[in-house]
Amino acid sequence: MADTMIHFQDVSRMYHPDIVGVTNVNLRIRPGEFVSIVGQSGTGKTTLVKLLMAEERPDRGRIEIGGWDVTHIKGKDIPLLRRQIGVVFQDFKLLPQKTVYENVAFALEVSGASVKRIKTVVPQVLKIVGLEEKAHRYPVQLSGGEKQRAAIARALVHRPKIFVADEPTGNLDSINTREIIDLLVKINQFGTTVLLVTHNREVVNTLRRRVVTLDAGQIVSDQEVGKYLL
Amino acid sequence: MFISFYRVIKASLQDFIRNFWLSVVTTSILALALISVNILLVLNILAGVAVDAVSQRISVSIYLKPTAGEEVVAAMKSSLLVQPSVMEVTVTSADEALQKLQERHPDNEAIQNAVTELGKNPLGPSLAVKARNTADYPAILASLESPAYAPYIQEKNFDDHRELIARIRRISEKVESTAISVSALFAIISLLIVWNSIRITIYTHREEIGIMRLVGASAWFIRLPYVIEALLYSVLATLIAAAVIFPVAGAVGPSIRNFFDGTQFDLLGFFQREGWRIFGTEFLIAAALTTITSGIAVGRYLKR
Hints:
The complex is a heterodimer. By secondary structure, chain A is α/β, with parallel strands linked by helices. Chain A has 7 helices and 10 strands. In chain B, strands 2-3-1-4 form a 4-stranded antiparallel beta sheet.
């Protein structure tokens, strides 16, 4: 459906008969939405991200992304899917032996982008995240906030339709947290669907956007303009 | 396709340089394994040279009766030389034998008087036979048992040497079988060391492999730089091994010749002649091992 960017239909993922990842999740996210997925640790937030990135397969249900059924996606198609979803993590996941510029460029290189395109796009995204001056530094030479901005730049470089941020502020102080959230809002304003996975109450309450609350692997609340409930 | 291949090559070289110490350690382990294999190869060759050197000193003498004329000696020599197992036949005539005896005992009056009193040469001609292989002596001597030659043979000293020859044969066979066993054992140990060091190298990259997957790199784009890097380790390790072995062979060559009392074996010459084949084979084995190990090790982390 054209008005649906992400669709989880009755999705369940169990790690063990006793360990629930997510269960019976039904979630429809429209293009251009900013959705916060909240919940305490171990409630299934990261499982949702892994299912979205095809890092894990659901035991039951169906997952569609932009109308593409990725429930049983083939191994060779996974890289194509991941190039359409920008993702950042709490631990940044930057390649330590590459500079900021090379980390961002790498995401384009793997898709076979031309040298000309890389030379045009990479400085643009580095400018968006405010790292153009530190393009040739290695991750170890950056602060936590700068590392996360480098990771955001890398996630943006494909101009993805979906941007997933899994606890992006977990390792940051309040000032850097504010800057990163502002950056995510800015990305959303460009028309990108943003999924913010967090358990930071203050961030969620300040955003005043759609909030989906998970508890024990199930969606217990879905508010259009929500607050952190738990 | 070309641009992707260029990027893979660039990534592997970049990774090799930026993980400098890891590259140094992995290359060193590989180079040490190759050097050890070459040392073992040299030891195997030297063992063969030693056995050959001892075998070369053995010859069987056939003493003929004084009645054996030159034509009989020549016929016996010819019949021996046509046998492929015979390497050399040296004839000592009756006169030469007498001259040697007198030269050997110039002050022994009893010998000198006995020869004078006899008034003729009591010694007969002799043949010293060298076989290519110590195992061939019995067959060679058996060929002289024919009625044409047997009446002229006074004495064969093979029996004196029989035990020595048998012992050398046993040592030779033992050295050969031990060398094969030690080589096989060492090859297995080297394979395990190289296999493990490559696996550890890839293990240190496991997080990077995970990150590459997350940003949408295809399996071959992740795997190939590591495979090329493994190839690079093999090239460098082979060059280092050759750079160590050639000067060492040149330095120890004269000592080996002295030790084996003037043997013709030239260690440096051997490596100069066979170097391309030896180091080429070692490179191919090392390259196959490291690239296959790399590919498999990366594959483990690609599945996660």
